[in-house]
Amino acid sequence: MATINFGIDLGTTNSLIARANNGTIEIFNNPAGFKETLPSVVAFRKERILIGDKAREYVEKDPRNVFAGFKRKMGTGESFFVPNTGNFITPIQLSTLVLQELKNFVYTGEMPASVVITIPASFDTVQSNATKEAGYAAGFKEVVLLQEPIAASLAFANKASDELLGQWLVYDLGGGTFDVAIIKIVNEEMKVVDHEGDNFLGGLDFDSLIVTKIVIPYLEEQYKVSDLALKMQSARGAYNKLYFKLLYKAEEAKITLSNQPVADIEFEFTDESGDDHEVILPVKRSQFEDIIRDRIEYSIDFINKLLQQNNLTAADMRETVLVGGSTYIPLVRELLKQRLQIPVNAGINPTTAVAIGAAYYAGSKTSYVQAVATTGGATAEADTTGIHVKMAYQKNSREQDEYFTAVIDGAPDGGKYRITREDGGYDSGIKPVKQRISEMLILLPGTVNIFKLKLYDAEQKLLPVNIADIVISQGKFSIYGQPLPNDICLEVDDTENNITQLEVIFEKNALLPLKKNITKTLSRSITKGSKDALLINVMEGSRYASPQSNLPIGIIAIKGTDLTADLVKGCDIDLSFEISESRDVTITAYIGMIDKEYRHVFNPTVRTVNITRLTEEAGYLLRVAQRGLDEMVRTEQYEQSTVLHDAVTALEEMQKKLARLTDDDVTDVKYQLDDQKRKLALIIDAAGKDQRTIQLKERYFWLKHVCNSLLAAAPNPALARRYTEVTANEQEWLATGSTTYLKRKIDELENLNWQIRRKDVEYVTQLYLYYAMKPLEEYRDAKRMKELRKRGDEALERKNADEITGIVYQMYELLINKHDEEPLEGTGLRG
Amino acid sequence: MANLVFELEKKFQPNDQQAGAKRIITKMSQLLEEEGLMILNPLGEAFTETRTDVEATIVGDGKGKLLITDVIKPVIYNRQDGKNMLVQRGVVLAGNK
After folding, report:
1. Domain A6-160+349-364: which CATH class?
2. Which of A244, A251, A399 to mutate to test the interface with B (most CBs of B within 10 A)?
């Protein structure tokens, strides 16, 4: 037999819904705002019903159409007139709306048919039945009631290691109300013996006291303002706006003071002469306690009264169980302990305790009806409503909101509709459905906004109508946006492989305008006054190709001669890249070390060629081509080698021409040479590519296999994640046939391989032995090498992988011929 | 952290002399954005009863067209798996211009 599982705390101020699941409890969050609590407030705004936080915003401004605290009226014959609808509404109907709203919190797709709803200990039979009626009206088929102090006690009992025995107090001090109850176990069941309360005592009073007793007197004295309280609390007062702001700040300070001895209240204040002041007012916990002490004492008087009328003393109580957000205040706990001389139990979140207890109870209570599973907004049952919905709206928008309209045929009389945005930022409220409905949908900028339209019958039960999502792309997703034809990349150094490579800044097909900020570090030091330069080179083309074959679209060269101080290897450079819709490329580089900003706007109609960079690239291409040529000759591929031979000749010629060019050359020679370089880069890249690609792929897949085996033998979640990242989109980039990219991936896998194996003592021992056995002549410092061997041999005995690795690194650094190639000039930006 | 960065941004806005500090704040914002947070300042935007991204205190008589006149806490969305989720409602004051 299934259990009820769902528990609802239908509170006077706030309501919550929770679910029991095999002994654990989940509290569902409001999909609008993701808070656990739903204020028990309903607002009737013209044609719209708002429930919860949005409704509460209008409590003071539109009190005749906004209803809060109606729980106290449950079971009375009273009903409220709603001017905006011209109808009367009962407390049961208002509670029904809150309960229905809570059902929307259940994201799991379940439609709970049975529920436990909590009621105050003071509720009589009529009030209890009224609550049940609200539950049934909200669509529950089975409603079980549970008293709030018992629910709270259950939450504590299920968390505490010790069993609750005898009798105890439940002290519930919330945002706006206070209740205290005596609970006793009678015949193995918890029972509320008696209770007392005050409907106008809670945390809101404390916030207000901070403002009126601490902040206002301070401001009056400091800035010589008279009658500030009046000027703040009067709707037309000059400081009315500040009052509301201060209430919020006071609440924050109150929360801080529960953990800290002092809380700062910070705000801007304009005095009556118009001078602005930045106020930082420290509030001590002792000050706060002084102003609220009376109110807490007053709540304890209630307890004494309650005990007295039951012929009990505090000593008869085992402990005081705390419920309600205001019980976080240390003074509350202290005074309770001091005055009653019994332990205070604060073992569970006091805000959610009642809902948790209700869910615990629901988890143990057998249900006689079945929950219905739903998919999305509609129930899983077939759409048999006969309702047809036709929607019309702009799918792409540059506006902050967009007009939506729909024609709805076959909706039931008294039916309602509601539109919500999936991210929680918009809610139309509940509105009467007509044949044609319309709404201004507010859009979240720069993203795809997904809205759901749901239809309800007159009793506000969800109708199983299949309605497609409303999907509107705002801002850059607009069809008017221009996609980038190629990747835009930054050229960076790969110092390990002595090459430069491309790092993508904006991906192909991203929509203009685009902006991105990144921080890079210097890969080498650049000395003040030297000819060396830091190059920020932005290129257009494929991120998988070599930098030399891409089109440079903007470059900033920061030369040693321009510097006011040396740039040290490793220092940060903040780079900002912007491409406007008209394709202007703006590069900004800020070097914090010398506090200097370099900014340049590159107009795409003007080609920028940097001679220093071009010279370096030509040199690099020449080396690559020469190496390829040598390899082809060695492997007797004479026919294919002619292409590379021609490329080498052309590059040598190019180098001569470049040597003759000055930085400020005004001819178009540099543009011709740049074109020629890119063509040659493509030729070199393509020469012998097939064979090279096969070799690289073999290496890549072999490394993948090794990594996989190593990770299977010694699982490591972080490295396994890295493996997934490295091999992501493999099919896509393998299809490009880019050897440059394939090499980069091989490097990443080799690095990963090393990360996995560096903890393997056996492996690092072999490495150590390799370097230790090399003749001393191959090292720069024989004496140092001997020391390292001695330390290494000791480390081998200890079998400490990290220590051995450290020694291997140091030995490697001492090697004389470890760099076969000349050092990379590169860009100066670490990849 | 996002709230603190927002507070700092607000403090430095009128003072253009603090370029260095502003740059650091911008960088902090960017780092948060890279982590998937979208921090929005709704100051000056229209306030309607359908906006569930803000928690408003309405100042004045609350009639007519309302605007967001003060932002105490920004609106924060978190982007995960291609989906935005409102993780913090903005705390604002709304009123007539």
Report:
1. alpha beta
2. A244
